[in-house]
Design brief:
heterodimer, A: 207 residues, mainly alpha, 10 helices, B: alpha+beta, eight-stranded antiparallel sheet
Chain lengths: 207, 274
């Protein structure tokens, strides 16, 4: 699940090969990220068959639309997972939601933009540490993130679902991400404020 | 953030955009609000640093999920699908037809090394020419957005570049879109502002041992060097040597050293004037 400098290079090379019509390269990408993708899809749709359909469709989308991917603007992995997340939400809600690769505008590009700071943090922290950080968020912030990111709800819908004004919901999302940044990237005091967990696969503060 | 449902065509100020940064990062904006945020960022000179700090958080959320091994059948199914599903044809790169129409006005002053690409530039029927003209109308608005969205150097660098661009814009000169002629070549704007014209462009790092050379071409297609530069970061702001008056086209080539006439096809080009 880690992103390293080398991993980024491998992905960039795969993107070039996929763009040239190399199906085996897409297969290699699948081997690298199918499990991560299925984890994300399953978290959203909560049905194994439906989640596998989502993963299948997402990789097909990468194959079809690879010319829209710009390796200088983002990571292939982030792009793939954005597609997985959006397709999964489409599946659950029965509608097309947030802009996908079909309408890759500045904001879509922005969200999959390579951010060395976050990528470095993710590369150095275990799954459990990431979960622990989520677990340290105040409950209402964690709920807002869960509804927005994994539930595919807009912040206005999050507001309605949680019975708060829209501005409050937007504020919770903002505060939650700022808090995550502080926990994972240690904005004020050097390295991460919570130590890396010794057991990468042990459960943590799962929300 | 307004408590009531905002109207389409909404405009947002900096504070409102900042309030929505979390929702933006997570893809949790209403579509018309996403458009409004995009429109704001496209013209705002404020750095919106918090936005840059939070972009990427969604990747951390995805990474917090336990991977689940798919069934072996899924890979087989995927590979079977790929065998029958075609890939989209690139649209970002110029789709130069293999059977290029004969240019109406061959470039009289072109050097022997200048290829059909250069000649096609002066064929009003060519896609290259049409795209350049079409983009001019909106260039003045987009150029600041390009810097704000893409420039990720140090704050001082960004500010210096923004000041320079803002000065050129304030001088009231037109800006011309110059676009990629090869996949991934980048794009930018030539701004005819105060003093020297400026190139503001997002380009890949200069290949080792090479430089970027800028060209101004007159209506006959004769290229004149407008200076050279190298790029490490994605955004460059480069003053051109000379003025745009009398030239109709701007282009960038990759060269081993500064030369008097381009030896390669342009990576970026566009129409720059009347």
């Amino acid at each position: 699940v880690q992103i390293t400098g080398r991993s980024h290079e491998v992905d960039a090379a795969l993107a070039v090969r996929i763009r040239s019509g190399d199906r085996e390269a897409l297969g290699e990408l699948y081997d690298r990220y199918a499990a991560v993708a299925l984890g994300v899809a399953l978290r959203v749709v909560r049905d194994r068959d439906a989640a596998e359909d989502v993963v299948h469709d997402a990789f097909v989308a990468v194959w079809q639309k690879i010319t829209r991917f710009d390796a200088e603007q983002g990571q292939l992995r982030s792009w793939l997972l954005t597609i997985v997340r959006n397709r999964a939400i489409d599946r659950v809600r029965g509608t097309r939601v947030a802009e996908d690769i079909d309408a890759l505008d500045e904001l879509g590009a922005l969200r999959s933009t390579a951010n060395p700071t976050w990528e470095a943090a993710i590369a150095n922290l275990s799954l459990a540490t990431l979960r622990d950080a989520l677990g340290l968020l105040p409950g209402e912030q964690r709920e807002a993130i869960e509804l927005a990111y994994f539930g595919g709800h807009t912040y206005r819908e999050v507001a309605a679902l949680t019975g708060v004004p829209p501005g409050t919901a937007a504020g919770r999302l903002r505060l939650a991400l700022a808090k995550l940044r502080q926990l994972l990237l240690g904005t004020d005091a050097g390295p991460a404020s919570i130590p890396p967990s010794p057991e990468p696969t042990s459960g943590g503060g799962s929300p | 953030v307004s408590e009531r449902e905002p109207m389409p065509g909404l405009t947002l100020d900096c504070a409102a955009v900042d309030e929505l940064i979390g929702a933006l990062t997570l893809g949790a904006l209403e579509s018309h609000e996403a458009r409004a945020v995009s429109a704001h960022l496209a013209t705002c000179l404020q750095p919106h640093d918090e936005l840059w700090e939070l972009v990427g958080a969604n990747t951390a959320l995805a990474a917090s999920i336990e991977p689940v091994e798919p069934s072996p059948a899924l890979r087989r199914r995927l590979m079977e699908t790929l065998a029958v599903v075609p890939q989209e044809v690139a649209t970002a790169a110029p789709a130069r037809p293999a059977t290029q129409s004969v240019p109406r006005t061959p470039a009289a002053g072109a050097t022997p090394s200048v290829s059909a690409w250069w000649r096609s530039l002066f064929d009003p029927r060519s896609a290259t020419f049409a795209r350049g003209l079409a983009a001019v109308a909106v260039a003045g608005v987009i150029v600041l957005g390009a810097v704000n969205l893409s420039l990720r150097g140090s704050l001082d660098d960004r500010q210096a570049a923004l000041n320079r661009v803002a000065g050129a814009i304030a001088a009231g000169g037109p800006a011309f879109a110059v676009t990629a002629q090869k996949a991934g070549a980048g794009s930018g704007y030539v701004i005819n502002g105060e003093g020297q014209p400026l190139l503001v462009a997002a380009v890949p790092p200069t290949p080792t041992g090479r430089i970027y050379e800028m060209w101004l071409l007159d209506a006959a297609g004769k290229p004149v060097s407008a200076g050279t530069f190298t790029a490490k970061d994605q955004i460059v702001v480069v003053p051109l040597e000379g003025q745009l008056a009398g030239y109709t086209t701007f282009a960038i080539t990759v060269e081993e050293r500064r030369v008097d006439a381009p030896t390669t096809d342009p990576i970026i080009a566009g129409a720059i004037g009347t």
